[in-house]
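Section 4.2 – Deliverable D4.2 (structural model, holo form)

The reporting period included a commitment to supply a predicted holo structure for the target in complex with fructose -6-phosphate. Inputs used:
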Amino acid sequence: MCGIVGYVGKKEASPILVEGLSKLEYRGYDSAGIAVIDKDVIEISKCKGRLANLKDKLDTSPVKGKIGIGHTRWATHGEPSDINSHPHTSENGSISVVHNGIIENYLHLREWLSSKGYKFYSETDTEVIPNLICHFYNGDLLDAVMKAVSKMEGSYALGVVSCDEPDKIVAVRKDSPLVVGVGTDEFFIASDVPAILNRTRDVYYLNDKEFVVLNDAGVKIYSPEGDEIKKELVTVTWDADAAEKGGYEHFMIKEIHEQPKAIRDTMTSRIIPGQPITLDNIKMTKADIENIDRIYIVACGTAYHAGVVGKYVIEKLAKIPVEIDIASEFRYRDPIINEKTLMIALSQSGETADTLAALREAKTKGARVIAITNVVGSSIAREADDVIYTWAGLEIAVASTKAYTTQLILMYVVALYFAQHKNTLGVDEIEKIKNEMLSLPEKVSEVLKHKEVLQKFAANNYMHKDMFFLGRGLDYAVAMEGSLKTKEISYIHSEAYAGGELKHGTIALIEKGTAVIAIATQESLYGKMISNVKEVTTRGANVLGFALEGNTSIESTVDSAFYLPKTIDILSPVLSVIPLQLVAYYMAIQKGCDVDKPRNLAKSVTVE
Ligand code: F6R
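Output (C-alpha cells):
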C-alpha cells in the first residue's frame, strides 16, 4: 500500500504532487509528505494524518521547486508519526526517497550501514534506502540506485531525488506497482494511473526491476541490467471523471449505484443471446479445457468471497472440481499442482501481493493461470497466461462493491464457457441462464430503489457490537461478503454462518436483541433456511430477512423482510449483495465512520 508520485517539468511541483496524492489516498492515509528540489536544495514537508494536514502545512510554509516526489502512507514498519512519514532522507541530507513496499532485509542493512557510521531516526524499513543509495553514490544517481536495490530484498516502488543531480528523478519497481506518465514538457511517476490522469493519458507500465530516469527533457527506461530499452507508450482510455464523486456523498455509495452499468459492461460482447459465450482473447482450446482436472480460485477479501460463489457455480455447471483458497495461505500449504491444474487469480487491483505470489507459485509448478482483474496492465494481468477484465470502471472506495458484482458475473461467464465446451449443459439451459443474466442490471436497479427497510434496520442496529449473517448454499457465500462489508466500514464485529451450522456452537451467542440478517433466496433451500431463522428468533434475535419476491411467508418468521426480484438460484448473489452493501453503508453513516477510508485499511494491498 502507500502511494507514491513524482513530477518533473516547468510548473511548480508541490500542488501537482498534492493533487496526485489526493487520488492515491485510497492506498493509505496514515501520513503524507513531499520532497521538492529548488536549485540544489531538497525541501521536505511531511506530517502524520490525512493529506489535508499536509495541505494545511504547505499553505503556511510552501515549498518551491519544479521537481519533486510525494508519498501517502499505510504504516507497516513504525507507527503513523511525523518522523516515520515519507520522504526519508539520507543522513547527509543529499538523497530523498519515497517507497511503497517492504524491505524485508532492512534490519540487516540497517546494522551494516550503522557499522559504517550511518545514523537512523525513524522506525521504518524505508530509511535504509536513501542511506544505501548515498553509500553507493559516486557521481551517478542511477548507478547508485541500481547498486542499492541489488542489496535489497522485498518489494519496492521507489522515487528518488538527489540534490547532487537536482534535475532528475530516478525510479524503479519490484512487486509494487509504478507507472510513468508522459505529458508535454512534463513527466510523472505514480503508483496508479488516477494520480496523473488530469495531466496525461500516456503511460509506460514498468516491469519488475526496470529503472527510469525522468528530467524535463524526457524519460529514459533501463533494463535490470542497465541497458536503455524502448517500451510501448500506452494511452489510457479511462474517464477522468470516474475519480470524482459525481454528486454522491461518498465514493462507496456512488460505486454501489454504478453496479447496473458495471454488470452490463462486463457482460457486453461475452453474453449474446443465441451466440456462444466468448471469453476475450483467451488462448485455451477445447482440448485444454478438457485437460483441466482441478481449478484453484485464489484471491483475498472480497475477491475471495466472489471466488466462493465461483466454486459453487463452476462445479455445478461445468462439473470441474474447484478449490477456493485464500491467497496468503495457498502457497504455504503445498497445494497439488500440475499441468492439468488451472488457477483463476481473482483481484480487483491486480496488484495484491498475496495473490500475485500465489499466481507465481502456480506457474512455477506448471499450472495455467487465468487472471480476472479490473485493472488493465496490472501485475497480475501481465503475469497470467490469459486475462479476463471486469469492466467495473475505477473503484476508489476502499470497500469493494462493483468489483465484487462484476467478479461474480465473470464467475458465471467462465462456468458457462467451460460448460459449453465440455457439453455439461444443453444449449437451452445455457441460453436460459444467459437470458436471466442479461436481466440482472435491470433487477439491480430495482433493488436500489427500495432502501427504506434497510435504512430503518441500520438506524435500529448500528450501535450493536456484534451482528450475524446467515445463509445456506450461495446465500452463505454472500453472507460472508455482507459480514466483511459491515466489519470494514462500520466497525461492527460480525460473523457469517451457514444457516445449518449455527446450532453446532455459535447459537450460544444469540440472545435477546442480537442483530441478524438472514438471506433466504435459494428456492431449493428456502424451507430449511426458514427453520434456521426460527432457531434464532426463538432466542430473541432481531432478524432482517431477505427473500425473493413472492416468498412472503418469511414475514411470519422475521422482524422485517426485504424482497429481491425473482431470479434463478445461482444468480441471486448479484442481487442479494446489494442490500448488504447498503446496510453496511447506512450503519457506517449512522456511526459517523469514514466510509471511503476506513481505519487501518488500504485499497491496494501490495505487501504480503
Ligand atoms: C474489501 C476489500 C478487500 C479486497 C482485497 C483484495 O472490501 O476491498 O478485501 O477485496 O484486499 O483486493 P484485490 O481484489 O485488489 O486483490
